[in-house]
Amino acid sequence: MDTVGNFITKIRNSLMSNNSSISSFCSKPEQEVTKILIRLGFLVKCRVMSYRGKKVLFLKMRYSSGHSVIRSLVRVSKPGKRLYTSYTNFFKENTSFGILTTSKGMLNSYEALVLKQGGELLFNVS
Which pTM was predicted? Predict the structure, then answer.
């Protein structure tokens, strides 16, 4: 089961329907992705609550002038085809933020560039 892919799809679906919040069952990769999106300014806040004995993640989306701050959310590395990249290849083709998993944890493309870390490119957000 691809939890990060499902999480990205939930965010994308809520953006298309102009919902201002999302709820999703909580896992460690989803929490890490949420922290990165909050640091980058794409989400307003996140709350972890318990519902029937399970952790649930409640996210509030950031809107500016009635439009979402997130313009596109594209999954790059998939379970059937993993895509690994070096830190030198981040900004050669696109200007969006890449979220990747490295040996130092989940990082956005700018943090990975500063730390000179490559890894699996999960998705791009702009």
Answer: 0.92
